[in-house]
Every structure is written in structure tokens, then in C-alpha cells.
Write a structure and sequence with these properties.
The protein has about 120 residues and is mainly α. The chain has two domains: about 30 residues; about 90 residues, Orthogonal Bundle (Arc Repressor Mutant, subunit A). The chain contains six helices and three strands, in the order ααβααββαα. A hairpin with a 6-residue loop joins β2 and β3. It is globular. This is Transcriptional regulator. Keywords: DNA-binding, Transcription, Transcription regulation. InterPro entries: HTH_HxlR, WH-like_DNA-bd_sf, WH_DNA-bd_sf.
């Protein structure tokens, strides 16, 4: 019986470690103040230019937006499209299919956030 408990504890520790590692990886890629906001705006807007994207995300500076877009592009969440055939050259950003795999996660976070805000207001804790 005791040996079985040790095996179960060992298995639990391994699974917990795997889950923590996976969550850390996810937070590393989409964490921070701006990344999810950028992803949400891009998913809702379709093709969008830099200045319009900046206007849609209250409080973000051009420098931070530029850096965040580069990170998101490196991780496959954003595609930068350059229309060089036009004068002046137009650059648009679009969300990728990979970025849209986050939709259920974003929706779950949104629902949780609404519930949490309601609980705080009602002092349900």
C-alpha cells in the first residue's frame, strides 16, 4: 500500500512538473501587458495598419508596439504584410491561423475575468 502511494506521488509530481513547464512556456510567449491585447485586436480587426493598431490599444507606445509585434511575428502569431507596389508603401499586420488557436483560451480568460470581477463586486469571497 505504501509503495503504491509513493508511485502515485511520484507520478503526480511528474505530471505537475510537466503542467507547470507547459504553462510557463505559454506565459513566456503570450504573457506581459500587451501581447494578448494585440492578438485580440488583430483577431477582431483583420488586416490593420500600425497606427490604427496603436489607436485601438489604449496607452501603448509606438516603440513597445513595434517590439511586441516583432516578438509575436517570431512566434508565429502575427504576419507582417508589406504592399510595396503601392506608393507610399503600406504595411499591415494580420493574425495567423496559429494565433486563432488561442481563441478558446482568450474566451475562457474573458469569462473567468467577468466572473472574477462580479465576485469582487459582490464580495463573494
Amino acid at each position: 500500500m505504501e509503495e503504491s502511494a509513493i508511485l502515485n506521488n511520484s507520478e503526480c509530481t511528474r505530471k505537475c512538473s510537466e503542467n507547470l513547464s507547459a504553462v510557463e512556456d505559454a506565459i513566456y510567449v503570450i504573457g506581459g501587458k500587451w501581447k494578448l491585447k494585440i492578438i485580440i485586436v488583430l483577431q477582431e480587426s483583420g488586416n490593420i495598419r500600425f497606427n490604427e493598431l496603436q489607436r485601438n490599444i489604449q496607452g501603448i507606445s509606438a516603440r513597445v508596439l513595434s517590439n511586441e509585434l516583432k516578438d509575436l511575428e517570431l512566434n508565429g502569431f502575427v504576419k507582417r504584410v508589406v504592399h510595396a507596389e503601392q506608393t507610399p508603401v503600406i504595411v499591415e499586420y494580420i493574425s495567423t491561423d496559429y494565433s486563432r488557436t488561442l481563441k478558446p483560451v482568450i474566451m475562457a480568460l474573458s469569462e473567468w475575468g467577468k466572473t472574477h470581477k462580479r465576485n469582487i463586486r459582490e464580495d463573494a469571497f
